[in-house]
């Protein structure tokens, strides 16, 4: 694919700076072509994003994605995908503080099999997809959180996260602390349950008006 | 003609003819687009299909002035009360055309958020299948509705209703 | 407080309103027709698309993507297919890539033609709507001949396109390449130098470049704010790097500039289609993809330049034939966030113009 | 009472009254049909063609249907004003037609037959006055609906109509000044005596009057009070059935009225072009009434043409246009006309 022909230097550079700056926070990382995926500690999401935005030049937040890892929780398989860090929630977390030079420097195909499971996998993941203009490189920051655990809202850093976080709140019931206006965005306020959670049936619980 | 139609007094029958003629030739649709089907509804009003030939191009922005409610698109549970209210705001006599599979039966969305057919909240006169129906399909549906109106006996229905009330 | 309450009027536009492009609802507060506050209320078309996708196989999702941005369903198909192909490592034949480019650019033209119609209709020029739709019909005819659908076309498959371009379709496309510039010129003749149009669009709905970037604005709206951001050039996909085209950029970032950018984009799309037709390589039109496509666990994000902006799909696979999670980054959803900033201080009548210039589609916003 | 006197004193007025109601109604029907067909033609469509010859019966179908439609009065509405509003709009417009001559006066024996109901030396003033009463109907309608969009439509309408009254008054003044009469028949006759239409003599007056006339009738591009894309349907959003039909018919009747006024004031009414030039004498063979109708239809056509072409003005631009351009312009125009009249 095209990614192979593209110069990956800017991404690698950005990642090295990030890792040097936040050795404690970065849990896991991999990149495919110009796309870098980094998992960080939940508490450090704001400083990491602030660094990436103001110092590493990732001037645009493309999207915020929420994921429910319920199905992969009991087994906790290690991620074994060739071009990614595997099913994120299932991929076991590294002990806090461990750095990841090895994985970061690796070429695309060899990364993934990071470490053995040591920490219980968490229920939800939130992914922040960043983009750097005009160099056209992407970075994906993710955090894992257990059920009922809140995460800091990144709206103060990237305003574009506003509705995306509301959407995740609406669909998963994840609480974003510090969000200016955290309400349901799609569903009516009286709706019960969070549809994109894996334990929510497709047809809904009550059905119809 | 139904049996009751034959018993209809001549003058009233003629009046009926006039009323249903005017009603069927002046179906002003309510300009309500819900989803994908709305685009095909607009395409029906545009040059190639030209709904105005039937006197139906006056898409009314206000439900008070509309005759036919073309439910063009997916009715979600959040939208359902609104659709119901819009229908209630339309003055009688009014007709409803369920355009597209979503309005007919929920279409490809058997999910928690979608009303499985608009006929659960308002009575539907004509169903048009398709996802979305082509403009020809919509025109066919509207002509079907016209024929349906042409067969109706507006005054007779009033008497019938009164008769039912006195019962 | 009492005097404030007396001066302000709160208006509810929608969810059923003639110019909210569907079932968008806007809570507007105005003071003597000056807009103080606009809050979009979404969800009236929320169909639970992303939840539904989790229960469908990778192949089955394609027709559902048609229903997102229903004015540009082929672009949705393309965005989704490219993402899955990237995740599964499917190599798309060169001919299929070219056909995809042709279809996507025709779709962009159709989408922009519908847009200019709606936009002009919103400021009261109703004839342009009819012109736009009449011009758009010839594109729909091509799609209908090619894949059988007019609006929800389902014109792409994993690994390529369902049908090869035959002589009939190529002939139709060539004909459209000739007629469309005339339509564009007609529409521009009605609008560009019209004083009322200028007045309704010039200096309206301005958003500074920095704010546009901050809000995640993409597509023509961002290009009208002076940033030459176009994924077709920056992160080329589906062989876009083979084609020669310009990225129109304007700097005033108002409604008028968004209009200019889109009109110019239409001409560039015609250029791309012409090049792709001329250089259409021989070969297969679809790669061999198993009916039951199981993708090993992994996750990927890929985005394309859709008519509305950056259309991205994030997919996480779990080894089965159904995705674990598909998240769509819909351009209209993120673009709509800038509405309040654009409208504040303008007049009530301008809301519809600004909303029109954003080119939103509710199917994509509400999913 | 002799038979002849009976004929002239009683029967003719009755016929006139019927005619004055029928005439605008026929024009409205033709106008509605024409508008839908012409707009369709401009947009590359066909337009109504299913009922009657080329769809000519379409307005009748619409009218009958509206007649048999349920009449809804919103619960929160002010019932009295809500009901008065459409009547007021309709009534004021129709009443104004009493003063509009339909053609040249002619003599039957000793009796002069004027083709209008009321002979008034200040007919022009009355027409203008009556046609502005309609704005009350719009205010009442908007206010009584007890809904925000109609209210905003009504507010816009009031400001718009009141503003455009001023340039209309000022331009009419130039005509009155030249013809030295407020009698509409007299104004036409003075154009015959002058040998040239006032519109050619005073193009500025004509242009300002015509554009203001479009604004008076709330038609595109000045159709802000009922701007569909902003205000749903403006002041008549809550109206249904026959009451809505009243607003609808009144709007078209008003257009006919304004077109008639333009023709009478600026284009010589029922006079053929160049009424005093011998070379064009053959044009007199065509009856005056036909000329009159042709001219009115031309201006009605202009209405449709403009509607199909232009985007809608924004409110501030509309007000700027009248206060910054039309009022100074018509004032200057008036002074120039006065000066020239005395110099030449």
Task: Provide structural commentary.
- Chain A is α/β, with parallel strands linked by helices and 209 residues long.
- Chain A contains four helices and seven strands, in the order H-E-E-H-E-H-E-E-E-H-E.
- Chain A is globular, with a radius of gyration of 17 Å.
- The N and C termini of chain A lie far apart (48 Å).
- Residues 1-5 and 76-118 of chain A have low confidence and may be disordered.
- Chain B is of the alpha/beta class.
- The mean pLDDT of chain B is 82.
- Chain C is built from 16 helices and six strands.
- Chain C has 367 residues and is α+β, with helices and mostly antiparallel strands.
- The longest helix of chain C has 29 residues, at 94-122.
- Chain A binds chain B through residues 186-188, 195, 200-205, 207-209, and chain B through 77-78, 80-81, 110-113, 115-116, 120-121.
Write the layout of secondary structure elements.
The complex is a heterotetramer of chains A (209), B (167), C (367) and D (344).
Chain A: H1 9-21, E1 26-32, E2 35-40, H2 45-54, E3 60-68, H3 101-105, E4 124-132, E5 137-145, E6 151-152, H4 161-172, E7 176-177
Parallel strand pairs in A: 2-5, 6-7
Antiparallel strand pairs in A: 1-2, 3-4, 4-5
Chain C: H1 2-7, E1 8-13, E2 25-31, E3 34-41, H2 49-53, H3 58-66, H4 73-88, H5 94-122, H6 126-147, H7 167-191, H8 195-201, H9 209-214, H10 220-223, H11 231-234, H12 255-278, E4 298-306, E5 309-317, E6 323-329, H13 331-336, H14 339-343, H15 348-358, H16 362-366
Antiparallel strand pairs in C: 1-2, 2-3, 4-5, 5-6
Helix pairs in contact in C: 3-4, 4-5, 5-6, 5-12, 5-15, 6-7, 7-12, 12-15
Chain D: H1 3-42, H2 58-67, H3 79-96, E1 106-108, E2 111-113, H4 123-144, H5 148-179, H6 184-194, H7 198-201, H8 203-216, H9 228-231, H10 241-266, H11 288-309, H12 315-343
Antiparallel strand pairs in D: 1-2
Helix pairs in contact in D: 1-10, 1-11, 2-10, 3-4, 3-10, 4-5, 5-6, 5-8, 5-12, 8-10, 8-12, 10-11
């Amino acid at each position: 694919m095209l990614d192979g022909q593209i110069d990956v230097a800017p991404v690698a550079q950005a990642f090295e700076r990030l890792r040097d700056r936040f050795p404690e926070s970065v849990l896991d990382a991999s990149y495919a072509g110009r796309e870098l995926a980094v998992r960080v500690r939940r508490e450090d999401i704001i400083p990491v994003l602030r660094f990436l935005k103001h110092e590493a030049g990732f001037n645009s937040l493309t999207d915020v994605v929420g994921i429910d890892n319920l199905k992969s929780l009991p087994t906790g398989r290690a991620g074994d995908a060739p071009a990614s860090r595997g099913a994120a929630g299932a991929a076991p977390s590294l002990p806090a503080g461990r750095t990841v030079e090895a994985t970061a420097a690796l070429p695309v195909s060899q990364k993934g099999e990071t470490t053995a499971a040591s920490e219980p996998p968490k229920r939800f993941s939130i992914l922040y997809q960043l983009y750097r203009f005009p160099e056209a490189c992407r970075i994906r920051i993710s955090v894992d959180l257990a059920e009922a655990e809140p995460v800091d809202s990144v709206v103060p850093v990237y305003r574009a996260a506003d509705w995306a976080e509301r959407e995740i709140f609406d669909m998963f019931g994840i609480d974003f602390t510090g969000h200016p206006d955290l309400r349901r965005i799609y569903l009516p306020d009286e709706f019960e349950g969070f549809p994109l959670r894996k334990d929510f049936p497709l047809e809904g619980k009550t059905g119809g008006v | 003609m139904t049996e009751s139609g034959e018993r209809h007094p001549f003058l009233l029958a003629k009046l009926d003819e006039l009323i249903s003629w005017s009603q069927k030739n002046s179906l002003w649709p309510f300009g309500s687009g819900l989803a994908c089907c709305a685009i095909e509804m607009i395409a029906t009003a545009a040059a190639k299909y030209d709904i105005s030939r039937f006197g139906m191009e006056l898409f009314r922005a206000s439900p008070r002035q509309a005759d036919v409610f073309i439910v063009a698109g997916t009715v979600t549970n959040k939208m359902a009360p609104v659709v119901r209210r819009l229908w209630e705001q339309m003055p009688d006599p009014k007709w409803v055309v369920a355009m597209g599979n979503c309005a007919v039966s929920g279409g490809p969305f058997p999910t928690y958020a979608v009303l499985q057919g608009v006929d659960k909240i308002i009575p539907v006169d004509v169903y048009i299948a398709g996802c979305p129906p082509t403009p020809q399909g919509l025109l066919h549906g509207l002509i079907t509705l016209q024929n349906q109106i042409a067969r109706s006996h507006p005054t007779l229905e009033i008497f019938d209703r009164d008769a039912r009330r006195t019962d | 407080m009492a005097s404030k309450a007396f001066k302000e009027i709160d208006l509810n536009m929608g969810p059923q309103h003639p110019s909210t492009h569907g079932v968008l609802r806007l809570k507007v507060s105005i003071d003597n027709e000056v807009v103080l506050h606009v809050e979009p209320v979404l969800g009236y078309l929320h169909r639970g698309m992303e939840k539904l996708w989790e229960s469908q196989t990778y192949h089955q999702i394609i027709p559902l993507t048609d229903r997102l941005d229903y004015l540009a369903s082929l672009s949705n198909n393309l965005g989704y297919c490219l993402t899955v192909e990237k995740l599964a490592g499917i190599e798309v034949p060169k001919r299929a890539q070219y056909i995809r480019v042709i279809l996507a650019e025709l779709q962009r033209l159709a989408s922009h033609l519908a847009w200019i119609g709606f936009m002009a209709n919103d400021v009261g020029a109703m004839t342009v709507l009819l012109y736009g739709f009449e011009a758009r019909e010839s594109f729909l005819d091509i799609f209908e001949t090619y894949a059988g659908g007019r609006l929800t076309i389902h014109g792409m498959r994993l690994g390529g396109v369902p049908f090869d371009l035959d002589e009939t379709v190529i002939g139709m496309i060539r004909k459209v390449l000739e007629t469309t510039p005339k339509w564009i010129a007609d529409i521009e003749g009605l609008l560009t130098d019209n004083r009322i149009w200028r007045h309704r669009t010039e200096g309206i709905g301005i958003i500074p470049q920095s704010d546009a970037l901050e809000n995640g604005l993409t597509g023509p709206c961002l290009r009208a704010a002076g940033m030459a951001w176009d994924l077709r050039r920056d992160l080329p996909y589906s062989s876009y790097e083979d084609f020669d085209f310009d990225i129109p950029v304007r700097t005033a970032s108002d409604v008028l500039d968004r209009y200019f950018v889109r009109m110019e984009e239409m001409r560039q799309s015609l250029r791309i289609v012409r090049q792709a037709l001329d250089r259409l390589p021989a070969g297969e039109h679809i790669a061999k993809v198993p009916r039951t496509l199981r993708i090993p666990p992994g996750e990927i994000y890929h985005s394309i330049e859709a008519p509305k902006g950056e259309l991205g799909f994030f997919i996480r696979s779990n080894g089965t034939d159904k995705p674990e999670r598909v998240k769509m980054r819909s351009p209209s959803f993120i673009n709509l966030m800038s509405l309040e900033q654009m409208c504040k201080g303008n007049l009530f009548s301008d809301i519809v113009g600004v909303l029109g210039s954003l080119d939103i589609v509710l199917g994509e916003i509400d999913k | 009472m002799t038979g002849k006197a009976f004929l002239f004193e009683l029967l003719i007025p009755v016929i006139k009254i019927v005619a004055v109601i029928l005439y605008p109604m026929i024009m409205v029907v033709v106008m509605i049909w024409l508008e839908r067909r012409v707009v369709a033609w401009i947009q590359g469509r066909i337009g109504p063609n299913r009922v009657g010859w080329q769809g000519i019966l379409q307005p009748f179908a619409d009218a009958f249907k509206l007649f048999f439609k349920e009449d809804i009065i919103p619960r929160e509405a002010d019932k009295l004003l809500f009901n008065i509003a459409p009547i007021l709009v309709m009534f004021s417009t129709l009443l104004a037609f009493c003063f509009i001559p339909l053609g040249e006066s002619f003599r039957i024996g000793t009796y002069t037959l004027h083709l209008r109901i009321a002979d008034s030396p200040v007919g022009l003033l009355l027409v203008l006055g009556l046609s502005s009463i309609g704005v009350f109907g719009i205010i009442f309608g908007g206010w009584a609906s007890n809904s925000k969009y109609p209210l905003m439509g009504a507010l816009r309408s009031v400001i718009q109509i009141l503003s455009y009254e001023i340039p209309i008054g000022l331009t009419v003044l130039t005509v009155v000044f030249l013809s030295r009469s407020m009698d509409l028949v007299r104004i036409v006759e003075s154009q015959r005596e002058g040998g040239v239409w006032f519109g050619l003599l005073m193009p500025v007056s004509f242009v300002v009057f015509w554009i203001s006339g479009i604004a008076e009738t709330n038609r595109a591009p000045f159709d802000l009070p009922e701007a569909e894309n902003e205000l749903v349907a403006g002041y008549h959003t809550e109206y249904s059935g026959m009451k809505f039909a009243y607003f609808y018919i009144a709007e078209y009747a008003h257009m006919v009225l304004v077109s008639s006024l333009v023709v009478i004031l600026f284009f010589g009414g029922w006079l053929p072009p160049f009424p005093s030039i011998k070379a064009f004498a053959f044009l007199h063979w065509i009856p005056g009434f036909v000329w009159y109708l042709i001219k009115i239809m031309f201006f009605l056509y202009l209405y449709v043409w403009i509607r199909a072409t232009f985007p809608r003005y924004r409110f501030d631009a509309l007000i700027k246009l009248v206060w910054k351009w039309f009022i100074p312009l018509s004032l200057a125009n008036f002074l120039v006309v006065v000066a020239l009249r005395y110099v030449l």
